[in-house]
Amino acid sequence: MEAARLLEAMGGEVKIFDPRGLPLPDSEPETHPKVAELRELANWSEGMVWCSPERHGAMTGIMKAQIDWIPLTQGAIRPSQGKTLAVMEVSGGSQSFNAVNQMRILGRWMRMLTIPNQSSVAKAYLEFDDAGRMKPSPYYERVVDVMEELFKFTLLTRDVSPFLTDRYSERRESALELSKRMNQKSI
After folding, report:
1. Do the beta carbons of residue 118 and residue 179 sit within 8 Å?
2. So what's the pLDDT on residue 162?
3. What residues contact residue 182 under an 8 Å CB cut-off, 6+ apart?
4. Which residues face 114 on adjacent strands?
5. Which of 35-39, 77-81, 120-124, 148-152 bottoms out in mean pLDDT, i.e. has the lowest?
6. Rounded mean pLDDT of 31-60?
7. Measuring CA to CA, how many Å separate 142 from each of 89, 146, 149?
8. β-bridge pairing 58-59 and 47-55
């Protein structure tokens, strides 16, 4: 929510996905209402903020499930390709970077433009007030830096994303051929 407030203050339009009710990947059809909502938001967005608690030294299962429900392709459309991505985590204990590192790898895998900066908030239970707002601190300043960088990278790449993500191997293949190859009913 703090990231959303910052992005809106910078002039961004923000929509937040609430994962409550999202089924495990492949346990329901992609027409499930929560899956459809997530995919619609992924298609709508120019940039994304992925934020996960770190649990047992890794991002949470629900965070991974959200990422797994975002397809690499929908027909000839790649919903994540060329979009900017910021990664952040909160930890209950000491500062770690395991979750952000995992999300960074996934963002690259999904051909997103993952910004260089990231945020990891240690002992998160001490960093928020009763209203859920982040207290002033170096952690908060880092979140501001990350959102500012995401906003700038999104603006900088907005008009050139198709050029940056254009690949020779994909230019050789027609949209129909790609759709046939990627939308196999069984493997």
Report:
1. no
2. 80
3. 72, 73, 75
4. 85
5. 77-81
6. 95
7. 12, 6, 10
8. antiparallel
3 membership: H or E segment, kind and range:
helix 2-9
Written as six digits, the tokens of 90 are: 């909160």
Rounded distance, CA 34 to CA 39, Å? Answer: 9
Q: Which two tokens stand for residue 39?
A: 């995919």
Alpha-carbon torsion, ordered 75, 77, 78, 83, to 10 deg? -160
- Specify the higher pLDDT residue, 89 or 81: 89
Cα torsion for 175, 176, 181, 183, to the nearest 10°? 100
On the question of pLDDT at 187 being above 60, the answer is no
Q: What are phi and psi of 52, to 5 degrees?
A: -135, 145
Query: What is the model's pTM?
Result: 0.86
According to CATH, the topology of domain 2-159+168-181 is Rossmann fold (3.40.50)
Backbone φ and ψ for 51, nearest 5 degrees, come out as -130, 125
